[in-house]
Amino acid sequence: MSIANQEVSKIAHLARLGIDEQDTPAYAQSLSAILELVEQMNQVDTADVEPMAHPQDAVQRLRDDEVRETDQREHFQGIAPLTEAGLYLVPKVIE
Question: Can you give the pTM of this predicted structure?
Answer without folding.
Answer: 0.51
